[in-house]
Amino acid sequence: MILEREDVKLSYFVAGAGPPVTLLHGFTQSGRSWRELISKVPEGWRWIVPDLRGHGETQTARGAPCSMDACTEDLLALWDGLGVQRTHLAGYSMGGRLALHVAARRPERVLSLVTIGAHAGLDDSAREGRRLGDEALAERIESDGIEAFVDYWGALPLFTGLERRGPAYVAQVRAERLQNHVAGLACSLRGMGAGAMDPVWDELAHVGCPCTFVAGQLDHGYVASARRLAATVANGRFEIVPRAGHAVHQERPDAFARLLASHLAAATAAGVSASSSTVD
């Protein structure tokens, strides 16, 4: 399905019925990367899954921003169009940073929050170096083309854990990444890379919904980020998944499906309890 806005045609799909859960994919991916996980979570949820700006089948107008703020506005328009006032929100890597941005800036729209391999922005001392690195990667995409970049990106140590699922699965992930386009990925790096993102650590102190921050045991930097995030919000916890790296939901989908289902059930129960307390 397509949501048409002034500067973007946002591609998305909706699956299932029940309370809404919005899933935000990582860099070089698209909404289709969540389909396996959705199939493993028990029924009873309405999955809202967009292709973020610069990715998949979403078409962004020339010169339009690929930024956290622009993607946030896309999500708000999508939710409004679907009649969704509040949604559970889950995101992986870049999508996890976007989820944190949305929760920090528009907490009234978020029922609960889950991130995988994410942080809430880099410290000032690290941002400029990362921005320059992302610019170099964007230029690499533009000079070498999508296939060369996808092969480079997929070979990074960050994604070694995907190899444990076998060559057929690795080939599937590669094929999905190849569905993206040079201009989109370059725009995303320049506007949504960790160097470009405004940190929202301080703003997360105002987030009161149930939050679960997930990292793979072997993804050491993001283990530290998950712990920091859990200590930053009022109602946060972290989960470290054994024998997993950066892409927990793809490396160990059954384990993450159980974790997500448990989070959603607990968040729903907490919401019911809070409503009951308010009525009393």
Describe the structure.
The chain is α/β, with parallel strands linked by helices. The chain has a single domain, classed as Alpha/Beta hydrolase fold, catalytic domain (Rossmann fold), CATH 3.40.50. Helix content is 46%, strand content 17%. The chain has ten helices and nine strands. Strands 1, 2, 3, 4, 5, 6, 7, 8 and 9 form a nine-stranded mixed sheet that branches. Strand 1 and strand 2 form a beta hairpin. The C terminus is likely disordered.
Helix and strand topology:
Layout: E1 2-4, E2 8-15, E3 20-24, H1 35-40, E4 46-50, E5 59-60, H2 68-82, E6 87-92, H3 94-105, E7 110-116, H4 124-144, H5 146-154, H6 167-177, H7 182-192, E8 211-216, H8 220-232, E9 236-241, H9 248-251, H10 253-279
Parallel strand pairs: 3-4, 3-6, 6-7, 7-8, 8-9
Antiparallel strand pairs: 1-2, 2-4, 2-5
Helix pairs in contact: 4-5, 4-7
Keywords, separated by commas or semicolons:
alpha/beta; 280 residues; nine-stranded mixed beta sheet; disordered C terminus; Rossmann fold
Oligomer: single chain
Largest beta-sheet characterization: 9 strands, mixed
Order of helices and strands: EEEHEEHEHEHHHHEHEHH
Number of strands: 9
Helix content: 40-55%
Compute the number of structural domains. Answer: 1
Average of pLDDT: 95
CATH class: Alpha Beta
Distance between the termini: 42 Å
Structural class given helices, strands, pairing?
A: alpha/beta
